Amino acid sequence: MKKILLILADGFEEIEAVGTADILRRMKFEVTLAGLNARQATASHGTRVMADALLDEADPAEFAALVLPGGMPGAINLYNASRVEALLREFHRQGKVTAAICAAPMVLDKAGLLDHRRFTMYPDEALFRYLKPGHRPQPDMAVTDGTVITGKGPGATPAFASAIAAALGASDALIRGQIAGMFF
């Protein structure tokens, strides 16, 4: 199966990072959790997660998708990391999937990936100031526009992960089966 790189910056949202990774792993994708600055990242609510690798150790050529969880101050830490912005642009230039949820779509926008695209994100006016003028999110739980995928927030994690899986070629039956099994 295809490989996915998910970046953990201190202050990430637990559900969006671990939930997305878990759902995608259940669908047999190989997900690498990459710490932005350290092997251990502390989430927005204090949960500590050990990354599989440091971002600088990961070879972007190995991955079909790049995923950014939201959370605060995690999304700000991603937004301020020039190497994340450069990596997003490179993945996009190569036609690979780029995905962000909650506050993290602002990082996609900074990299120019939301120009002329539909997207969603956490509905907080304070976050919208990080967006380019005229860029406004849709109210949907998850939006796929080309190879760019966005999710609204923690409650959208199953829809967000499903959209990533679909973009990477997972069958509808596999996606429905995995998601249905979580909401018996």
From TrEMBL:
Pfam families for this protein? DJ-1_PfpI (PF01965)
What are the record keywords, sorted?
Answer: Hydrolase
Task: Tell me which InterPro entries the record gives.
Answer: Class_I_gatase-like, DJ-1, DJ-1/PfpI, Prot/Nucl_acid_deglycase
Q: Name one GO molecular function term.
A: hydrolase activity
Q: What is the E.C. number?
A: 3.1.2.-
Listed GO CC annotations: cytoplasm
Give residue ranges for domain DJ-1/PfpI.
2-166
Q: Does the entry feature the keyword Hydrolase, yes or no?
A: yes
Matches recorded under SUPFAM superfamilies: Class I glutamine amidotransferase-like
According to UniProt, the name of this protein is: Protein/nucleic acid deglycase 3
Q: Which gene encodes it?
A: yajL_12
